[in-house]
Amino acid sequence: MLKRINKKLIVATSTVLLSTMILTGCGASADTVAKVNGKTISLVEFDKTYKAEKKRYEAQYGSDVLSQSSSDGKTMGEAFKEYIMDALVTEEVIMQEAEKEKINITEDEVNKQVDSFKQLTGGEEGFKKFLEANGMTEDYFKDRTKKQLTFEKYREKYLKDLKISDKDVKDYFDKNKDKYTTIEASHILVEKEEEAKEIIKQLKEGADFGELAKKSIEPGAAERKGSLGYFGKGQMIPEFEKAAFALKVGEISEPVKTEHGYHVIKVTDKKDKLDQVKDQVKADLENNKFDEKIKSLKEESKIKLYMENTKNVEKDSKDEKDKAKETKDTEKSKESKDTEKSKETKDNTTDNTKDTKEKTKEENK
């Protein structure tokens, strides 16, 4: 359930967290970070999850990302803690609901999933390296796997019982038509407008678009014959998108100026009919319905947060890094001293051997 996250998601989640849950500053022991319908989420669980997710997040965005400021004035580190808290609370709400629905995951199911993952990481050694890199133990990984499987079974059961009609799909499609309109296009990028006009002239005279794409200054354009594949709105820079979506299938644009140069665009296909994207529309509608269900469950739950009990989590994490660095420096210093001592012993041995040889030589004389 704990997926990779981005900066915008962290800030958005922390805002929702503060506005929808009951916050309290007292009434819980220091090793409790939250209570969901009376069930405790421990500081130990928060700490493990925080550290594992932090490693992945820093690997993706840089080691200093959590020290940066977010848009609401907090540090990204503070917002990140609130994201972790929200994820654990949401998870606990779903686990409790799954228990009511009598959804159980067996040990065999967990082991099978873990074994499959081990194969993906290259066996036992690769798995151990993965755990170490992400700050996890095998028991913790198994626990997370069990919860993930529980979540998937709960979601599967909910969607199975969910009745979505063709009318529901059509209504949702009609309200969000722009989201589902995609085009397939190719382009040729050049530096000067005159070059773009010359290419358009050649295309109108019957030249092959793929061949002319070899003149494109965009890396890799020649190999792709200028193809950009399918894309929707919001994926390209504004000037390019506006021109591309205004074209009919088979039509070629006039030169389109952007910060990269001048583009010649050709649209080769357009998907804007319900029957072309019906499965995707239904999947999105199911996701929305499921999200609404989880939101409703959280609103009905008695949730108390104790964020003040997480204040030392980042400090402890930093202390561990400093301690590890100190240990490494100490070991390095010890190795250096041992090397010097070894060299000194070797030098003394050499000198003694030399003295013995000279003494023996004198005696023989």
In short:
This protein is of the alpha+beta class. It has 14 helices and eight strands.
Describe this structure in words.
This protein is α+β, with helices and mostly antiparallel strands and 365 residues long. Helix content is 62%, strand content 12%. Among the domains are: 32-162, Triger factor/SurA peptide-binding fold, CATH 1.10.4030.10; 182-271, Chitinase A, domain 3 (Roll), CATH 3.10.50. It contains 14 helices and 8 strands. The strands form 2 sheets. Strands 1-8-2-3 form a 4-stranded mixed sheet. β2 and β3 form a beta hairpin. α1 (7-20) packs across α3 (76-100), α4 crosses α6 and α7 crosses α13 (274-300). Mean pLDDT is 85; it is low at 1-20 and 316-325.
Largest sheet: spatial strand order:
1-8-2-3
Write down the overall mean pLDDT: 85
Approximately how much beta-strand content do the residues carry? 5-15%
SS field, number of helical segments:
14
CATH superfamily of the domain at 32-162: Porin chaperone SurA, peptide-binding domain
Structural class: alpha+beta
How far from one another are the termini?
A: 88 Å
Which key terms come to mind for this protein?
peptidyl-prolyl cis-trans isomerase activity; Chitinase A, domain 3; EC 5.2.1.8; palmitate; disordered N terminus; four-stranded mixed sheet; Triger factor/SurA peptide-binding fold; Trigger_fact/SurA_dom_sf; rotamase; four-stranded antiparallel sheet; elongated
